[in-house]
Amino acid sequence: MRRAALLVFTGVVTVAGVAAAAEPFRQLKGAEIKTRFSGMEFTDDVHWATVFAKNGSFASYEMGAVGKGRWTVVKDELCLTETGAAHRCYQIWASGKDVQLRREGMLPENGVLQKPVKREAR
Questions:
Q1: Which of these, 101, 115, 118, 120, lies nearest to 39 by C-alpha position?
Q2: Which of 15, 16, 41, 53 has the most C-beta neighbours closer than 10 Å?
Q3: C-alpha distances in Å from residue 77, one per residue of 31, 62, 74, 94, 95
């Protein structure tokens, strides 16, 4: 019984320690957005990914489909213009490599920033 109580206590302390160590999300400013996204991939690691080239172009991959467009940072927002689609801008919130793209009236797009993975169009 004493051992079980110790294991439960240890588990609670471990979980609480991990939760306390998590970095809260904070909004990135313009220069941070440009630095963090340039040359990186924003992805859910399963269904979609967007690769941000250093020259301001991007390629998006979603369930085998490929899209292309341009990205810029305007004030403190990441702005995307995909070929054949409307121009849209997002606030960027980050916690470590976890990132959220936020727009008013929309649910955030959650993903991670990582080095690009080689992909092939289908």
A1: 115
A2: 41
A3: 10, 23, 5, 13, 17
Number of domains in the chain: 1
**Which domain CATH number covers 59?**
2.40.128
Q: Read off the pTM.
A: 0.78
Q: Is residue 4 part of a domain?
A: no
Q: Residue 108 has what DSSP assignment?
A: P
* DSSP label of 63: T
Q: Decide if 8 is inside a domain.
A: no
* Tens of pLDDT, residues 4-20: 433 334 444 444 445 45
* Region of residue 64 (phi > 0: left; psi between -120 and 50: alpha; otherwise: beta): left
